[in-house]
């Protein structure tokens, strides 16, 4: 890469000298001014055009080079080409536009001036190069003239290029960044390949001889000064024969260099881009420029597609099938508050199209205002789905999509000069990202924050973290806009005051929703105007035998068979076991005809699930899938859930029995939604949860109406009045979740220097949702007293330093954070465990067992998972006996002696007290240890008698905690030894696959099963995927749709581009240092 960039700078410097010389470039420049090239006119390409084509990395010319070109040339090969080990890729064609090629010009000028035997060698060389560069300058001027006619605003970029020319010190950095910002990933692959080739030893005798010739004249050919030597050298007599040979060597070296560069470029695997596409990209750039200017002027009429280029509208049509927006979406996007960049909360029923509005606002921020954007989503699965969905937009429109979920995400994010980033994050990762931006004083780079499911502010510790994140953004940045959306909001006034936001709401649903309640065999319609909340609708018309009545007292089969298989149906069940039982029950009593519906595709799904399970498939799914029925809950692996979701969306499966988590997860609508019970677990259904579930009823563009049926027992009839009640209010959880709420907030405020005195802390707390609602929540203590107690607790734990006093003159004394406190908030460690974690890491330094990663795995096992674990003591004993002697020492170090495990397994009484949390944590470590050795969730779940979903949840939680642990250790110098160890362990836990599959797992939408398929099909690297053909991929990979193939290829290109970009930035930094 440095050689390539050096060559580019050298050609530019020589080009300038050529233009300044008499007769070199002036006349062509005048001709370009007198006869400007019109848009779309066919220009004859010259060397300048060829050079730009090489950097563009995707033109028709490049493809024509690869195929030989349409016009016949002189038929000359390379000189001495008969002995060359490399194939002449140009064959009989020197030019892709007839005979007027760069190589042909070199040859003609060489022969013309060698006829004069008295001509000086250096003069001949100067004339040759001068004529070439004069032609190049003419074509360059013509093309620049055409560019100015198409897009005026590109002058900024051209100015940047001129600055690179005039600044030899920083030229390498500027050129590197500009090229790598604009090139497609396939061209970047070529650069990497060139690096490898340039560093490889050359053993060919022919190439060695050529190298010797080039090296012998390197002072004359490579040094630009050799072409402009003094006059005294020109007047010296030179032997004509030696003159011919020297000129031959020199021009031959130049020809070889140029032809070699074109050969390498022709071999590069580049995308085929037509001139039509290039013109469309020029129009796109112009529209973005116009939209940006329009938005800066705060005009209401802001562009072809809500301030965005028309290409965005085309992408929504191509990728999402969206032709037009709903009326409410148009009204919302045209709100004056949005044009004035005020914060906004908007609320509509589920499936009303809220996300599309948010995505358009996000694109406005990225493309028009050129600011980074943070999108906060509630769950990892939704983050991954959104990353897949928006990666294609990023590639087409020139911005980056970065995933912040689980162990993924960089803190702080890399600051980029040209391209802007869309960070898609979970609540926890979004908080850590905001902290890192505040710490590096880059929070103003964040132009927009979008929060989906804003009602989660009122849900436990995650709600507290979300409140902390938004409060910090509001307090530290006046330039960042906040958009919140939800389907279930009630006390909007408090949220408006907290977020300083406008409010927009609408009752629009694309499909009408009809709500019903079933009691025994009677269906009632929900009617908020009636006394008890519902009115009679109809009786069930289904004949039940006595045996069927006993098996199905809730008449689920009757409700289901009214819609399937023609339409889809969801059954929400209170527990995971209930989901499996319902799926088995329904298929047991369905008619045989249901098996015939899309039978082949169902068998393909079973084969796919068998492949995911390494030859094993769940017996319940094996029984139910032939009838088009499956269950969906957290007991399934990610791969299994994804396969079931895709086949349900395509209509192969017509019925899913699922838990309430599906309602808040991926979008899987149905014609009819059945609520098996008014309970979620052991808790009675809340109005918010009810609305989320029934919101899945009705598919836009497919169903004319959606139906929801809540099954209620006679004894719970009086409780169903909740359908008439308003939605639950959203309250702050900072006080309810002390270690993850109030105390965590106070610690990070001091650590980030947002507020370091009591006065500043009090001022900040007034800007939180708790500050807005303090009259409702703080009945026993005032907010000031709660703050004082929290700060004193942090000082007592050794996380803060300072004194807290009620006296006014002491309220301005500054608080400081300790190293342990800084490590705690930067690692996002729960304050309830930070001191325990520190002690365990300290103890580990005294005798860290490195024979295997077992000891390190114990330290990376999350504390909060120990409460959900119940060890099987015989399994515990067997796993312990399989450890080596060194690994058994780990159990002694952490405080679980062998005698304790033996007595527990044999059922003997235990006199010695052992911490149950430590015992459970060690048991979970055994699970993780087996996972990393076997990389098979199915076999491990069977070995430990756990559900597959629980094992996978443990794995993802451990990967996330290991990432937090790494950031914790980075802040404490004494734990330097853990850094390298945890970096590798985090990667192993994140992917939990064989090493060769890890690069493929980086691609959004590629999980373990898909990665194995791709690897076995020959797609073993990101480069292979990035350059794949979607049609070929669909043919070679089973159960892969064309849409999925395109998404995988787009994501692979994006990952490859991002990796190359980061590498180039690192090279520039190292070079400067």
UniProtKB/TrEMBL annotation:
Gene: HELQ
Catalytic activity: ATP + H2O = ADP + phosphate + H(+); Couples ATP hydrolysis with the unwinding of duplex DNA by translocating in the 3'-5' direction
Gene3D superfamilies with a match to the protein in the record: 1.10.3380.20, 5' to 3' exonuclease, C-terminal subdomain, P-loop containing nucleotide triphosphate hydrolases
TM helices/strands, residue ranges: none
Pfam family membership, one: POLQ_helical
Record keywords, A-Z: ATP-binding, Chromosome, DNA damage, DNA repair, DNA-binding, Helicase, Hydrolase, Isomerase, Nucleotide-binding, Nucleus
Helicase ATP-binding domain boundaries: 335-507
Biased composition (Basic and acidic residues): 208-223
UniProt record similarity statement: Belongs to the helicase family. SKI2 subfamily.
Source species taxonomy: Eukaryota, Metazoa, Chordata, Craniata, Vertebrata
Function noted in UniProt: Single-stranded 3'-5' DNA helicase that plays a key role in homology-driven double-strand break (DSB) repair. Involved in different DSB repair mechanisms that are guided by annealing of extensive stretches of complementary bases at break ends, such as microhomology-mediated end-joining (MMEJ), single-strand annealing (SSA) or synthesis-dependent strand annealing (SDSA). Possesses both DNA unwinding and annealing activities. Forms a complex with RAD51, stimulating HELQ DNA helicase activity and ability to unwing DNA. Efficiently unwinds substrates containing 3' overhangs or a D-loop.
Subcellular location: Chromosome; Nucleus
GO molecular function, one term: hydrolase activity
Ranges where the Helicase C-terminal domain occurs: 559-746
Entry EC number(s): 5.6.2.4
Domain of life the protein comes from: Eukaryota
Organism: Catharus ustulatus (Russet-backed thrush)
Entry's Gene Ontology cellular component terms: chromosome; nucleus
GO biological process terms held by the UniProt record: DNA repair
Protein's name in the database: Helicase POLQ-like
Region (Disordered): 15-91, 199-244
Major localization listed first in the record, in broad terms: nucleus
Xref: InterPro entries: DEAD/DEAH_box_helicase_dom, Hel308_SKI2-like, Helicase_ATP-bd, Helicase_C-like, HTH_61, P-loop_NTPase, POLQ-like_helical, WH_DNA-bd_sf
């Amino acid at each position: 890469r440095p050689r390539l960039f050096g060559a580019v700078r050298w050609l530019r410097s020589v080009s300038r000298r050529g233009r300044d010389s008499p007769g070199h470039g002036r006349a062509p420049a005048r001709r370009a001014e007198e006869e400007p090239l019109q848009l779309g006119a066919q220009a004859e390409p010259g060397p300048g055009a060829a050079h730009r084509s090489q950097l563009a990395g995707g033109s028709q010319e490049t493809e024509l080079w690869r195929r030989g070109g349409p016009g016949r040339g002189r038929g000359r090969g390379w000189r001495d080409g008969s002995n060359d080990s490399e194939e002449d890729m140009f064959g009989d064609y020197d030019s892709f536009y007839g005979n007027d090629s760069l190589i042909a010009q070199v040859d003609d000028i060489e022969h013309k001036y060698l006829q004069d035997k008295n001509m000086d060698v250096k003069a001949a060389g100067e004339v040759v190069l001068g004529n070439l560069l004069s032609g190049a300058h003419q074509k360059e001027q013509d093309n620049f003239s055409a560019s100015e006619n198409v897009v005026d605003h590109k002058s900024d970029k051209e100015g940047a290029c001129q600055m690179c020319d005039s600044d030899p010190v920083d030229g390498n950095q500027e050129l590197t960044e500009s090229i790598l910002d604009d090139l497609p990933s396939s061209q970047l692959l070529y650069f990497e390949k060139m690096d490898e080739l340039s560093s490889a030893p050359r053993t060919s005798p022919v190439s060695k001889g050529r190298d010797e010739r080039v090296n012998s004249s390197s002072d004359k050919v490579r040094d630009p000064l050799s072409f402009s030597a003094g006059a005294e050298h020109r007047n010296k007599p030179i032997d004509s024969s030696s003159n011919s040979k020297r000129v031959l060597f020199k021009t031959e070296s130049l020809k070889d260099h140029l032809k070699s560069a074109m050969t390498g470029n022709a071999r590069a695997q580049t995308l085929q881009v037509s001139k039509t596409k290039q013109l469309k990209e020029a129009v796109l750039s112009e529209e973005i420029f116009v939209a940006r200017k329009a938005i800066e002027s705060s005009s209401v009429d802001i562009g072809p597609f809500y301030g965005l280029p028309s290409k965005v509208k085309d992408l929504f049509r191509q990728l999402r099938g969206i032709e037009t927006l709903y009326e409410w979406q148009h009204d919302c996007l045209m709100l004056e508050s949005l044009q004035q960049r005020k914060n906004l909360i908007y609320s509509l029923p589920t499936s009303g199209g809220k996300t599309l509005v948010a995505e358009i606002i996000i694109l406005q921020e990225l493309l028009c205002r050129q600011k980074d954007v943070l999108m906060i989503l509630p769950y990892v699965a939704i983050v991954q789905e959104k990353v897949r969905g928006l990666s294609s937009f990023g590639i087409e429109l020139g911005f980056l999509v970065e995933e912040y979920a689980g162990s993924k995400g960089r803190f702080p994010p890399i600051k980029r000069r040209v391209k802007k980033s869309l960070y898609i994050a979970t609540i926890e990762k979004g908080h850590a990202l905001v902290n890192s931006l505040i710490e590096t004083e880059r929070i103003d780079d964040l132009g927009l924050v979008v929060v989906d499911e804003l009602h989660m502010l009122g849900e436990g510790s995650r709600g507290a973290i979300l409140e902390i994140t938004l409060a910090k953004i509001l307090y530290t940045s006046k330039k960042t806009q906040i958009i919140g959306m939800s389907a279930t909001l009630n006390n909007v006034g408090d949220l408006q005051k907290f977020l300083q936001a406008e409010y927009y709401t609408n009752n629009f649903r694309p499909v009408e929703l009809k709500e019903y309640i079933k009691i025994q065999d009677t269906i009632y319609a929900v009617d908020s105007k009636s006394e008890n909340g519902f009115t009679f609708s109809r009786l069930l018309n289904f004949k039940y035998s006595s045996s069927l009545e006993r098996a199905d007292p809730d008449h689920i089969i009757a409700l289901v068979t009214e819609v399937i298989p023609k339409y889809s149906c969801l059954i929400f069940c209170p527990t995971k076991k209930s989901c499996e039982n319902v799926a088995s029950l329904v298929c047991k009593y369905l008619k045989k005809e249901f098996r015939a519906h899309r039978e082949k595709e169902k068998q393909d799904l079973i084969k796919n699930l068998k492949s995911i399970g390494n030859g094993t498939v769940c017996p319940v799914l094996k029984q139910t899938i032939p009838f088009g029925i499956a269950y969906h809950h957290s007991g399934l692996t990610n791969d299994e859930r994804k396969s079931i979701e895709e086949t349900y969306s395509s209509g192969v499966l017509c019925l899913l029995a699922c838990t309430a988590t599906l309602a808040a997860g991926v979008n899987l609508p149905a014609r009819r939604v059945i609520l098996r019970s008014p309970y979620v677990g052991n808790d009675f259904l809340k109005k918010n949860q009810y609305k989320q579930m029934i919101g899945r009823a009705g598919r836009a563009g497919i169903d004319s109406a959606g139906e929801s049926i809540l099954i209620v027992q006679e004894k719970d009839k009086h409780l169903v009045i909740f359908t008439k009640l308003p939605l639950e209010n959203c309250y702050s959880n900072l006080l309810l979740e002390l270690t993850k709420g109030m105390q965590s907030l106070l610690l990070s405020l001091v650590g980030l220097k947002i507020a370091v005195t009591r006065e500043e802390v009090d001022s900040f707390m007034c800007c939180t949702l708790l500050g807005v609602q303090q009259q409702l929540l703080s009945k026993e203590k005032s907010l000031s007293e709660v703050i004082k107690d929290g700060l004193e607790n942090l000082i007592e734990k050794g996380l803060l330093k300072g004194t807290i006093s009620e006296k006014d003159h002491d309220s301005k004394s500054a608080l400081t954070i300790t190293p342990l406190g800084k490590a705690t908030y930067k690692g996002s460690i729960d304050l309830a465990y930070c001191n325990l974690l520190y002690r365990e890491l300290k103890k580990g330094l005294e005798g860290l067992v490195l024979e295997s990663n077992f000891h390190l795995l114990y330290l990376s096992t999350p504390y909060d998972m120990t409460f959900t674990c119940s060890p099987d003591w015989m399994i515990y004993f067997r796993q312990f006996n399989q450890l080596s002697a060194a690994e058994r020492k780990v159990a002694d170090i952490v405080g679980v002696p062998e005698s304790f495990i033996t007595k527990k397994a044999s059922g003997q009484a235990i006199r010695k007290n052992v911490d149950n949390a430590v015992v459970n944590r060690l048991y979970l470590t055994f699970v993780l240890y087996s996972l990393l050795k076997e990389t098979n969730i199915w076999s491990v779940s069977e070995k430990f008698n756990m559900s597959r979903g629980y094992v996978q949840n443990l794995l993802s939680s451990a990967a996330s905690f290991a990432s937090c642990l790494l950031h914790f250790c980075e802040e404490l110098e004494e734990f330097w030894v853990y850094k390298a160890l945890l970096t590798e362990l985090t990667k192993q836990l994140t992917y939990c696959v064989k090493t060769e599959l890890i690069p493929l797992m980086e691609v959004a939408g590629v999980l373990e099963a898909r990665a194995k398929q791709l690897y076995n099909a020959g797609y073993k690297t990101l480069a292979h995927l990035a350059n794949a053909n979607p049609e070929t991929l669909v043919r070679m990979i089973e159960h892969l749709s064309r849409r999925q193939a395109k998404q995988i290829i787009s994501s692979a290109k994006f990952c490859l581009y991002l990796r190359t970009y980061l590498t180039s930035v690192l090279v520039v930094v190292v070079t400067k240092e």
